[in-house]
Task: structure prediction
Amino acid sequence: MQSSPQALLTILGMALVTYLTRAGGLWLMGHIPLSSRLKEWLEYLPGTILVAIIAPTIFSTGWPETSAALATLLVAVRTRNVLLSMIVGVLVVFVLRWCSSGL
Amino acid sequence: MSDQSSVAVSDPSDVEITFTLKGLLAGARRVLPIALSVCAYGFTFGVLARQTGLSVLEVFLMSSLVYAGSSQLIVLSLWTMPLPIGMIVLTTLIVNLRNILLGASLSPWFLRLPAAKAYSTFFLLADENWALTMSDFEQGGRDGAFLLGCGLVLFVAWVGSTVLGCTLGAVIRDPAQWGLDFAFTAVFLALLVSLWRGKADMFPWLVAAVVAVVCAHFLPGKWYILLGGLAGSIAGSSISIIKGAHHAK
Result:
């Protein structure tokens, strides 16, 4: 268990800027008057961020990921069960990756 | 911690937001399956950090103080002696800029909590607990401690698994081999189903997906999240405003 002062300083710097980004959105919205335009934008934000997080994995990794995403989506729409959807997604991607590496 | 505290809301049309132990426990329970996937990711980070030359103490400090997986992973590629401190800190800032969007989207609720509670809970803000909280609020949940409960479990999972990975080294092989890396995507996809509000979401989501895929291909790091989310939400709100203007005429 040891560490150099430079490493500690780097980690502290990383921690500081990361917390600023976490608090920043809340602080900004508290200091900007909330127009109807801004409200409209906020309503679209959660869905579009979530889409942006997963889109590259689903559409440009490979066919196992795309197929597993489709299976996950089907289960999620049918059952609305997040845990079950996750299990199906992981199983399908595991099996299909195994198949694709064997081909 | 104090529970059962709530804030009176000036606007009577708004539902009050609470911050209770019950909400905290609900969040902690909901996040458990995702915590498993975070552990797999954390373990991988720990193994890589050890190979990069970080000590167990450094991994522990970084995971608990920074607590942001993607930026920690990217920073490993910059971790050479002497440490380029400025570049590492700047990279961390850029990779984590998307947190500003996450915070902004939760602000309608969290700005109505006492500042100390909101700002201390936001230390634990991450993609995973943000997504769960957002979907809980969309379904009528109004407990700010939900985010804290999710966050605490994720924090323990992240710090524990990264330290374990760093300690054990390369005993366990790549979690991607077991499909565990896909757990994130699957959970987010399932949450997305509950965020779908109707046809109006189709175009902005399509824009977000296309921009994210293109950016992920051409830009390093996690820029695609910020740019995709911004492009999609701006496209959606612009269309709503244009339509609204037409109706007004």
